[in-house]
Write a structure and sequence with these properties.
about 35% strand, single chain, DUF4352 domain-containing protein, mainly beta, globular, five-stranded mixed β-sheet, signal
Length: about 220
């Protein structure tokens, strides 16, 4: 589900103190192959759309894995995949699903950064990702699984906007998640800055160093 052009940033707590950590919008991520692991394992192969590259690889494979298998790949929005992430308490298996993305306006984006010029020609987009702890045990302390989430626009990784998502409706703050039980789900958001007139959005998730992240495509983001 893609929500665009709404005043969602008005719901964020003191936007004036939000800091922008902008990693050159439009820059490819340094990583091997068509998808590189990262906070949200992702990447672009020779400038081609990473989701298309991953889909092509699936078509060539005689045994394409199901979305529930921990191997990464392209999924439809709302479909879940299963992967592992190394938390402080050990490696944990998660069921992961990108539920929706929410796109703001340039005017709103300029209000949430310390220097409005940093947001020129950009908009903030938030990915809502639900994680379910599948074990083997409780996740103690601050979970880091959301670090595996990234947002790409037209095949290029956006810039991470720090401090925005936790206070938005439907987003949970990882700081408030304590002793994450097996079978328990939490929706943790990430917000990125992307070029204003992007037409295709991708949410990537994977453990750092993963060769192939999960990719959810959201079209019509212009």
């Amino acid at each position: 589900m893609l929500h665009t052009r709404s005043a969602w940033l008005r719901a964020a707590a003191p936007v004036a103190v939000l800091a922008l950590a902008l990693t050159a919008c439009g820059g490819n991520k340094d990583a091997p192959s068509s998808a590189s692991g990262s906070g949200s394992g992702s990447g672009v192969d020779d400038g081609k759309n990473s989701a298309d590259a991953a889909a092509a690889a699936d078509e060539k494979s005689p045994q394409t894995p199901q979305p529930s298998e921990p191997s990464g790949g392209v999924l439809r929005p709302g479909r879940s995949g299963t992967g592992q992430y190394r938390e402080e308490s050990g490696k944990t298996t998660y069921e992961v699903v990108a539920q929706k993305v929410h796109v703001g306006t340039e005017a709103e984006a300029r209000k949430v950064v310390q220097s409005p010029e940093d947001a020129k020609g950009l908009v903030a987009v938030t990915a809502y990702v639900k994680f379910t702890n599948k074990g083997p045990g409780i996740v103690k302390g601050l979970p880091k699984v959301d670090n595996g989430t990234e947002i790409y626009a037209d095949g290029q990784r956006g810039g991470l906007l720090i401090g925005a998502p936790e206070s938005l409706p439907g987003c949970e703050d990882p700081i408030d998640i304590d002793n994450w039980q097996v079978g328990e789900s939490h929706t943790i958001c990430q917000t990125y800055m992307i070029p204003e007139h992007s037409t295709s959005l991708e949410v990537h998730w994977g453990e750092e160093g993963a060769a192939r992240p999960f990719i959810w495509k959201f079209d019509g983001a212009g």
